[in-house]
Specification:
alpha+beta; six-stranded antiparallel β-sheet; 22% helix; 27% strand
């Protein structure tokens, strides 16, 4: 027991003490304008939507826009806008929703629930893969 406690204290000492105390992140958010284009954005969005939607089956009126660079949180990022009507548990459909999906370093980072500003002026094309999703 004492050995475990001493080992954890020693490891804690190794982890701290850095002069450039930078937060640990999963994506290297360099905050630079040279963000890479998200080549696999459609596949990443489909995988995300499968978990994001309560019922991914029966989505209607799905549309997707090409990735565009937008300033989000003071940093230039690629944003992909998606519009869709999810199927409710009673079989009815809600009015279409618009969401922005932000990419950092070419990978899906987060969803923007209120996407009116980052999705302003985008042109939507059909997103048949979203309408054909299964569980």
């Amino acid at each position: 027991m004492t050995a475990v406690l001493l080992a954890s204290i020693a490891l804690a000492g190794c982890a701290g003490g850095s002069d450039d105390a930078r937060p640990i992140t999963f994506t290297d958010d360099r905050g630079v304008a040279d963000q890479p284009f998200p080549n696999s954005y459609r596949a990443e969005i489909l995988a995300f939507m499968r978990t994001y939607l309560n019922n991914p089956v029966g989505v209607h009126d799905a549309g997707i826009a090409e990735p565009v660079q937008r300033t989000v949180g003071g940093r230039l990022r690629y944003v992909v806008c998606v519009r869709y009507s999810p199927k409710e548990s009673d079989g009815s459909y809600r009015p279409p929703r618009e969401r922005g999906l932000m990419f950092v370093d070419g990978r899906l980072d987060r969803i923007i629930e209120n996407a009116a500003e980052p999705c302003a002026g985008v042109a939507y094309g059909p997103f048949a893969e979203l309408e054909k999703m299964s569980r």
